Amino acid sequence: MIEIRLYNTLTHRVEPLVPVHPGEVRMYTCGPTVYSYAHIGNFRTFVFFDILRRFLRSQGYRLMHVMNVTDVDDRIVAHAAAAGVNIDEYTAKYITAFLEDMRTLNLEPPEILPRATEHIEDMVALIEQLTKKSLTYESGGSVYYRIAKFPHYGQLSRIDVQGMQVGARVDMDRYEKDDVRDFALWKAPKPGEHFWETRIGPGRPGWHVECSAMAMKYLGDTLDIHAGGVDLVFPHHENEIAQSEAASGHPFAKIWLHSEYLLVEGQKMSKSLGNFYTLRDLFAKGHKPSTIRFLLLSVPYRRQLNFTEEGLVQARSSVERLRNFVDRLRTPKIPVGSNPETQKRIEKAECDFDAALADDLNTAVALAAVFDLARDINTAMDREALVQQDALRAIAAMEKFDVVLAVLVDDDAEKLRTLGFGAAQLRLEAAQVEALIAERTEAKRRRDFQRADAIRQQLADSGILLEDTKDGSVRWKYK
Ligand SMILES: [Zn+2]
How much distance in Å is there from the Cα of 208 to the middle of ligand 1? Predict the structure, then answer.
């Protein structure tokens, strides 16, 4: 097994991944809060989780990956109360949308996707455990964590707890470093708000305790990896550590990974700036799922990602280049034979790809290995120097890369149709399809492969599947 090295926020060092259980990685990633549609900043993080899990699996690890769905928190409770519905009714639509969005971006489902509201008993039990250890106190029906009793508080985010006022409290789920205070584990109900009747009184859990309880329930006291967006380092992950380690007496996670922010055209994304996008906003503007996935994965997770219109155009053409390359490798006219030099070249690309990802998931370097290979093999094909065994070997390599990248399968149009986008304007009449195919055949005869590829792409975008047959004719069908 190749050594995988990851940057650990806790130690500020790149460290080898050494799972507690050899051959199996147990990881917890903070999932969506389903008070609205997830935005592309969220998806930057979810794509990072997906690259991580796909790469670990490609390297032969078994995975036990838990990602929570936060279906109760301040915002959900407030929105549901304002809408006059219970929280299940309120969140149902956004949970469904999130699962659809995951499928659309080819995000593999985690092994376990627990919902907070289905684990209230586990959270109550964890709070009781902390109370037994004198780490909590009650005030006005709410239960707070006494952070002064946990000497390591601030270790992950490196905040200064010196000036902290002992006994001062914060009730919000999300707050800034200036507000480092005792935080709510359990919140007393306010009039009109959703609450549960439990052994520790009526109320609802704080956001932080949800993750500690669900992570330890499914993964044990010590996780191999805990990951999330960089905005969660404080207070969320700091508080998770305080809760979990005080309760179990063991380190909570060996490695903490955090993905950086996403900017839109160089600015922080915000509704007031009009640069706030959900996936559906981008699909409505004509962007494809594979384009968005490619753009989000192309920048290594610890670098800020600037999401731009230009970047989308480039990402789209990058995906097309890869798909066209594989199509070209599949053309039946390649002569038989095998060339050891080419085989070596392909093997090198595979090694470079894995080595880049093993180096703290450097997706930029991994992609460079893929595109360099495509360029070299394309050049060989231009010279008619590529032979069949090498073409097959190159296809196998591309399929291997795609286990992690997941952009080669041309199912964008189908996915968009499933979500209700673009069905009407995309549909071509049979006569138009025939005309385009004739033009493509003619372009190929002239060796104008660029034009031929562009037509193939146009047809693919319209949901038309082409099949080049051995006798040189072309079959097609609607996907
Ligand atoms: Zn969390």
Answer: 6
